[in-house]
Amino acid sequence: RAGDVVAMAMRGGKIFIRDNVGYRTAIHMKEYKERIPLLVIGGTAQDFLGEYMAGGRVVLLGLNLKNEKHKSHYIGTGMHGGVIYLRGKVEDYQLGKEVGVVEMEQEDWKFLENVIEEFCNHFSEKEYDKDEILAGNFMKLIPVTKRPYGKIYAY
After folding, report:
1. Would the N or C end of the chain have less CB density within 10 A of its end CB?
2. First-to-last CA distance in the chain?
3. Contacts of 120 (CB under 8 A, 6+ apart)
4. Is 142 exposed, middle or buried (0-12, 13-18, 19+ CB in 10 A)?
5. Cβ 26 vs Cβ 47: under 8 Å
6. Contact predicate 51/24, CB 8 Å
7. What is the C-alpha separation between 43 and 14, in angstroms, rounded?
């Protein structure tokens, strides 16, 4: 288990975590040109996953959930860039008001196929099955605006 604020302000590279993460994971994650950070979490996360995310990709696999929903609340609060791929179930009230759920496209599935294969290779001692993981229910979360707090400023 990784602790709180994993991948805080991450600007590039990849982090693979076999199990769970704590609170405020991927806060302020950003991308710059071709540098797109990637965080893959095998388990689940505590509250405020992807808070104020401005770019990058987070993949939350929920492999330790047994047909339960994720317990995290405020997922994507303040998010204004990037993508969160979430495998498993969450209710609308668990999501920040700044994110929306959109349909997965072919390019999303190709991305996930590559990422999950890499995840399985990193943690081969657990004998994960890529196809079984990909058969799970995935959601794609994206920001609904590029300026979620624009109306509270004077300009």
Report:
1. C
2. 43
3. 128, 129, 130, 133
4. middle
5. no
6. yes
7. 17
What's the pLDDT at 79?
95
Task: Output the CA angle 110-113-118, nearest 5 degrees.
Answer: 130
* DSSP H/E element including 117: helix 106-122
The single-letter code of the amino acid at 73 is H
With 70 as the cut, is the pLDDT of residue 14 above it? yes
Residue 110, φ and ψ in degrees, nearest 5: -65, -45
Q: Write the pLDDT tens digit of every residue in 91-126.
A: 999 999 999 999 999 999 999 999 999 999 999 888
Q: Find tokens 């095998």 and name the residue.
A: 42
CA-to-CA distance for 32 and 42, rounded, in angstroms?
Answer: 25
* Backbone angle region of 130, left / alpha / beta, with phi > 0 → left and psi within -120 to 50 → alpha: alpha
Higher pLDDT, 47 or 150: 47
Specify the residue for token string 């704590």.
22
Take residue 99 and report the two structure tokens written for it.
Answer: 């994110």
